[in-house]
Structure formats: C-alpha cells, structure tokens
Amino acid sequence: MTKFIFFTGGVVSSVGKGVTAAALGRLLKARGFTVMAQKLDPYINVDPGTMSPYQHGEVFVTEDGAETDLDLGHYERFIDINLNQASNVTTGGVYAEVIARERRGDYLGGTIQVIPHITNEIKRCIHAVADKNGVDVVLVEVGGTVGDIESLPFMEALRQMRSDVGRENTLYVHVTFLPYIGASNELKTKPTQHSVRELRGIGIQPDVIIARADHDIPKEHINKISLFCDVRQEAVIPAKTSEILYNIPVLLAETGLDQIVVDRLGLASKQEPDLSIWKGMIEEIRRPKPPIRIGLVGKYVELHDAYMSVREALYHAGHANNRKVEIEWIHSNDLERDKGWERFTDLDGVVVPGGFGERGVEGKILAAKWARETQVPYLGLCLGMQVMCIELARYILNSDEPNSTEFDSQTEHPVISLMPDQHELADMGGTMRLGAYPCELVPGTKAAQAYGEAAVSERHRHRWEFNNSYRDRLGEAGMVFSGLSPNGRLVEIAELADHPFMLGSQFHPEFKSRPNHPHPLFMALLAAAVEHQEARLPQVERIVEQVNELEF
Ligand code: GLN
Question: Are residues 238 and 191 in the same domain?
C-alpha cells in the first residue's frame, strides 16, 4: 500500500514548503524507500507554460515534456528522481478534464459540482501518481497557503483521502513560519496557531508541524505550538533557515522528522537512513573555495527564481571544480542601452539562458559577441544558443540583418527559424517541442569531450531552431555543429572551433543537473572558466593552494 504525505503551507507563501518536502523525500530514499512527488497548484492556468517568469519563476520541464512548477526541480535535485506529467496538477487541468467529460456526456443527467466531481478528479490525480509509479511513498504538496479561496477543493480532497485510504496511510504536514519582531527580539507563534485553526476548520488536523524561522527557535515556542495545535511536542519540528540549501535533509534528520514519519505511517524501515554520501557532498560544498564570477545575462534577472535550475547547475559544477560560483546577474536590456558593461571586466564565464520574445534579445546578442571577441568561456542555453548563431552570422555577413524569425519575421537572414510543425499551431499552451529527445555527438568536438559519450538525451522547450541553410556558411566561419538529432536534421549543439569554450545547446541541460551529478556541459564551462581565471590572475593558483592547505 502506498503511503501519502500531504504538505500544506501556513502564514505566508515562499517559506520553503517545496524544499521541505524534497528534503523529507531524500531522507525516505536514504532509508531505502521508493518515493514520488507531486505538486498541486490551485491557479486556473492549465500549466505554468504560458505564464510570465515574473509571475511564476522558472518553468521546469520533465523528461516526458510536462511544463511544471519550479518545486519539481527541487524534488528532482534533492531526491535524485525523474518526475513526469502526473507530478503537477492545476485547477485549470482538473476543470479542463471534468468539463471535457461533461461535454462527452459521461455524466449525463448529473449536476457537476465541486464536491464530488472536482474533488474526485483531484483524488484521481493523486492516486495516478501512486499507481503509475508503484512507489512506497508519494509526497503531495499543495501550493499557496491555507485560507486561500482557490485551494479549498484541493484541501477538501486531501481531507477525504484519509478516510479513503486509511489513517495509517496518510500523514498531514503543515509548514508554517514564525515571524521575528526585532523591537522585542522574539519570534511569534500566533500566526501559526491561527493557520492551524484554519486548517482544522477545513477538517484537517496536522500530524506534524514544521516551524520555519530565520532565527533560533526556543523550546518554549515548540511547546506552545504543541499545546495550542494538538500536535505532540516531538512532531513540532524547528526548521531554522539553512545557509546551505542541500543541508536541509541533514538538519531535518537531526530533529527526528523521518523517524516520526516512518513510525506514524507504520513504514517498516528498510534500513537506518544512510546519508553518508549526501553528508560527504555537504562537506564538499562547505569547504571554502576561491570565488569565480560567472555572468548570467537574462531579461528576468530581477527575479532569480526565473533561473532557478541554471543557478543550481552553476553551483553544482562550481563545487566540483573547486570554485565558489558568484553569479553576476546582468540585465540584457541594460547592455542594449550601453549600460552594465563595466560588470564584465572580472567575469571568467558567461551564461545566456533561455527566453522568449523580443525584449532584451539584442543585449544577449551583444553578450555573445563580447564572449566571442574576448575569448571568455560562454554557455548558451536554448535562446543562448540561438543568439550565438545569430551573432556569428552578423559578424561574417557584416550586417545586422541575421536574426530569428521570432524577433523579426521579415528578416532577410533567418538564421533561426520556426520548426516546420510549429507553423500552423493555433494554441500557445503545451505546443512547443517539449521534453527529452536524443542527441548524437560528433566525435572530437568539445561537446563529445564534455559528455564522454556518443549519444545523450536532453530536455527541450522551444519553437524555433537553427536554419540548416546557414550550416555551410557558419561552418566555414568556424562553427561546429557538434550535437545533432539522430536523423541529422536538427542542430542540438553548436560550438566555436576557434575559442576556448563557446558552446550553445538547443536543449536545457540545467534541468538534469543534480548536486551529486553536476551536468557535463556546466562542468565544461566551469573548467574553461577556471583556466581563464588562472591565466587572467596568475596569483589565483597560489590562493587556491593556500585555501586548500587551510584546515577546518
Ligand atoms: N524563444 C526561443 C524558442 O522558442 C527559445 C526558447 C527557450 O529559450 N526556451 O525557440
């Protein structure tokens, strides 16, 4: 029988509910259980694919091409599993399904209502994850905070799950926040009490409360929460903000959380949690390292969450290359207005990530030009690969005309053009080239060297692609098409021969980087950046030696 652990949020959003669920998933996996995770998002969009990154942060893409909430990235990175279409459910998706059934006549004669039709569909989605994957435990997180009007049907479905599958198979974890009042130097538990009262009003009594705070949480506060919320003291878990994201599973294990969870769910523990490898990784992260600056040139840089997986992938590869990556967040719009260039002076690498729409794209093209001319290592991700091709075409043709038809539909030189199957599409949602596709690597190229494999599979999310009628011309100018679709038609990776490392991929490698398996292309970028740094600052080698000699 699959066990279900439900995560709800209290007091404020963004308290780290997703990370907490992901961290518990890691602990259960360390005990030998199989785990899947699911996010229930109460908004009415069918998926976040059509939402602005400013509203939603990054859109995470699964192997099977679901465009999902960024919390799925946390689940994949912490638990080291691949999720799928069933792992993200939205109000829009639930209603779309129920309405389609109603139109088909499946409910003839019936009145379709929130309870039971919508709640039944939500429960069907929750069961689908368990059935599809046949795992020991499913972690189910509800987006938003208790009290939101739009999350009520989800909460009701969660409440019903306990009587459907049994008390011994369900666990409710409420993640709340204790605000800090500076004037009196204390944390407050009252909002948590209110939020639990609200949750109980819906009919859910939490089994575990995870109290998040930015400060140390005194024992009296735990006792107080326990007393007012009817949760045993040992199941009120203090969770102070951790400096190291990936240390959260270790910190939660120290509170006994995973023991409480397995006891309550009657999960016969397969083994004591084995966190040795994970802890070794944390030690490696914690070890002081010389900094290295990588510029991230994007148009949503005000909101770092818009590049969550890129940021994490850079950190993963940085640690593995004995460097602490410091990201210089550079707004591509600024570059267009000839601003922000002073920030390039101490960069040892540049990343141009994915993006959509015309705004800011000229700045990204300028960043690619800068990297080509200064020979600074460059990694382009999706749009970042496209701008690298546009830039080289502009250079060799000595013209500003080369472009993507996404930004100039009338361009004389459509170096990047719409994929043939994208021409006739009427719907914007879920119609891009999405998910994992195979890519064959050309032997002897930097891409093949980075991966050390002949063929790879990577995740995509784009409509435009490299226009093959420019292959010869750019090839003559030193561009190597080092990754191709198996039929040879689609350019998946392009790189410059005459450059230490300038490579762009039409896919998004960042989605597959894990803290314990940094991605090969990010590893290659960082290795090249380290070389660049050592050549630029000869004293760096000395500093690295000194740091390595320090004992901690
Ligand atoms: N806008 C480009 C396309 O659709 C790039 C997409 C991306 O960077 N994810 O092809």
Answer: yes
Quote the CA–CA distance of 14 and 26 in Å, as a whole number.
20
Asked whether the beta carbons of 277 and 514 are under 8 A apart, the reply is no
Residue position matching structure tokens 């306990």: 162
Number of domains present in the structure of the chain: 2
DSSP annotation of 287: S
Catalytic residues: 382, 508, 510
Q: Please, what is the Cα angle at 284 between 321 and 345, to 5 degrees?
A: 40
How far, in Å, CA of 115 to CA of 123, rounded?
11
**CA torsion through residues 292, 242, 17, 14, sign:** negative
- pLDDT band, very low/low/confident/very high, at 51 (cuts 50, 70, 90): confident
- In this structure, the answer to whether residues 372 and 427 fall within a common structural domain is yes
Give the distance (Å) from ligand 1 centre to CA of residue 381. Answer: 9
Q: Are residues 269 and 313 in the same domain?
A: no
Which residues, other chains included, contact 177 with Cβ-Cβ below 8 Å and sequence gap of 6+? Answer: 10, 11, 12, 15, 191, 192, 211, 212, 213
Q: How far apart are CA 233 and CA 211, in angstroms?
A: 12
Q: How far is the CA of 469 from the centre of ligand 1 (A)?
A: 20
Mean pLDDT to the nearest integer, 75-98: 96
pTM: 0.93
